[in-house]
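Risk register update: the risk that structure generation would not scale has been downgraded. Supporting records follow, first protein first.
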Amino acid sequence: MTEISRFADEAMWPAPPIPDDFPRVSLIHMTRMPLQVMAAAAELYRGEVVSDPGQISRETAQHWFDEMSKTRLQAPLEFIDLHFLLDGVTRGFTHQLVRQRTAVYVQESLRFAVKDGENFEVTIPPSLSGLREDDPRSVVYTDTVTEIGLAYQRLINAGIPAEDARFIIPTGILTRVHYKTNLRNLAEHAGNRLCTQAQFEWRVVWAKMIRAIRERPFALRFAEAEMDAWQYETIADMFRPICFYTGKCEFMGEHDRYCSIRERMNTGQYDKVASHEWLANPSAARRPSE
């Protein structure tokens, strides 16, 4: 690893290694008693003033949550905040993620984080990950990534600032980002990103985000957490592709890709579409060296 004293810019620092089980999703913070907090706000719609969300019954909270799926007046969902750390996602993924303008981000900056040596970690996409190592296509990809990594390291060692050396880094480089949003915007974002039109990485990350929400109460250290587990389960079950909300496929242009559930969704056969059909991981991501 290059010593910091040799870096061209004193603000540069060695990027921490990416975890082996990438992408890793950590739910750092989420509003406690989420559906009760949401319902406390919604109660004002009918003239009820609630200052303690703990006073909201399960029935009332569930009622208001169900109401949110029937109206465009979904402001109460914005009272539920979620803060994720996505560790081991590609720069290509984060380029798309930050297009959601209803969120806050802090991303590992390759202006200063040096992806040096063993930390130059690039993933293999699904169309290549299932090929043999000696397949000519795999060889081209792996050899190119290796050469770029070596070239990047030579530039860093020669005194080139990371913010300039990064110009040759592929979009498949693994990185990390803090992502904070609210439930209303997260659900809207899920509609497009869980669609089979989205890049494979989205479905991989979303599956882990959903699991993190579902497991949230058991990761907390207060006695009431498990009693509130139903609230997190209910939220985890709400995420669906956009066609489940609109009742039809929203990607019918001639440039849109084939979708295996399109015909069933357009004819109202929602009960014949299993979640694994749109939440499937096309291929386990791995690094070129593995």
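Supporting record for the second protein:
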Amino acid sequence: MVFRFIIASVLLLTYCAIRRVPLPKLRDVPLFAISGGVGVFLYMWAFNTGAATVESGISSFIISSAPVFTLIMSIVFLKEKANAAIWIGVIISFVGIGIIAAATITDLQLGTGVWLLLGAAICASLFNVIQKRITLNYTPMQATAYSIAFGTLVMCIFLPDLFRELPTAPASANIVMVYLGVFPAAIAYFLWGYALAKAEKTIYVTSFSYLSPFLASIMAFVWLGETISPIALVGGVVVIGGMVITNALRRNKATHS
């Protein structure tokens, strides 16, 4: 985990140095520190630890509750307004995630892993809200680079494990870590921050995370030859339907403007 985000931090901070991207103002440093600590360190730790002991279907279902928490937090902390269409769309998509999860769950036990994953979902939601707040005054690159840098700094508590494991790790594993640091970490976090900065409401972005379990099933079918159950396909259709409803009002406004 720490190796992946060291790579992401070096990549993003190098870009910022080359392009002379301004540092955060001193009064905003705590906000960036909380963003990185919660959205990078705590989220990744809780997710990885929890997912190690919980079935993939349950993990997907719990993590996909993040848009619901994000919607509530954005109303409370960002004063965003949510009409009936948004609430209905979010709930329908969440039901779709439940249908997909039901296709893969074989044993549901409320152990420590489940609570860790729930904590990870809450951390992701809080991160979304903080990032939206940061992008009101900073660019998506600043919001991403400096948040990840602070999160990586906290992750350095795991450096002894990295130093112990790195010399014996196969080259293929290190290549995978470099890939994860560049694409799912640095680039993905930046694109997410960019989308949050441009969106009128936070939920318009976070609702798309409902697609992750469905797309994962599709990719597993194409690349790994895994079977997609009819129940999972139905759940995917329900997810997409909920997303359409969530974003319908926004499109209508754009059409009439």
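Residues 93 and 239 are 4 Å apart (CA to CA). On this basis the risk owner (M.S.) recommends closing the item.
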